Amino acid sequence: MRSIRTVLFTFIFAALFPAVSLYAAEKGDCESPQAATDLRHCSFAGRSLEGIDLQGSILDGVDLSNAKLSGCNLTGSSLRKADLKWAILTECQMEQVDMTEADLFHTTFDGANLSNSQFTRANMFGANLNEVFAEQADFTTAYMKDIAMEESNFNRSKFVGCFMQRAVLIGSKLRDSTFYNVVLTGGALENSDFTGANISNSLLNGARLDNANFSESLLQNTRFNNAVLTGANFSRAREIPDHLLKMLNDENIEH
């Protein structure tokens, strides 16, 4: 068991010198993993680790497939290229976690705190992020086909270059978020809030936008062909493409 003084020193050093301290962490015990340790030599596949505290740990490339981690604390940890296929991370604390290029195939994050976390180039096919708090998260170029993201907070988050075909974002907050060059074809966006969002060069063909709020959003070069707009709000939206203007006028929708 590591002393309180050792753990406290590790976190203070990490706060001051994050790039150095993370990879200076001591080698951890795979059977009884602790916070702020290097666990890259471990496998936790299929393990039941509910409520575990692994704050500030290094888990790059680690096999966590089918692991049960509900209620865990992974704040400030690194899981770059980790394997979390089918893992359960419901209600976890995961602020400022680096999951760059992680395999999150059908991973469940429901109810988790993912604020300021990094999902760049992650495989998130079929993942569940329902009722999560994920402000200022970065999903740049993540593969997010068939992802479920209902009733969540993604305000000020980045979805640049994401493939999100048939994504479900019903009732989610996406204010001031960035959806540049994104595929949301067939997406379910009912009752979602995109106020002030940048939704440029994207595809929302066939998407359900019932009662969604696009006020003050930027819509330059985005395609909405065959989208359902019933009750949607486009007031003060900017750079509305001509085909969408016609759709709004035909349905007497404010813009």
General form: elongated
* Strand coverage percent: under 5%
Number of strands: 0
Percent helix: 10-25%
The description of the largest β-sheet is: none
Number of helices: 3
The N- to C-terminal Cα distance equals 62 Å
Question: Could you explain how this protein is built, in words?
Answer:
With 255 residues, the chain is mostly loops. It is 10% helix and 0% strand. It has three helices and no strands. The protein has helices at 4-16, 18-21, 242-250. The protein starts with a helix and ends in a 5-residue tail after the last helix. The model has no long low-confidence stretch (mean pLDDT 93).
Secondary-structure map:
Layout: H1 4-16, H2 18-21, H3 242-250
In a nutshell, what does this entry contain?
It contains three helices and no strands. By secondary structure, it is mostly loops.
Task: Give me some keywords for this one.
elongated; little secondary structure; 255 residues
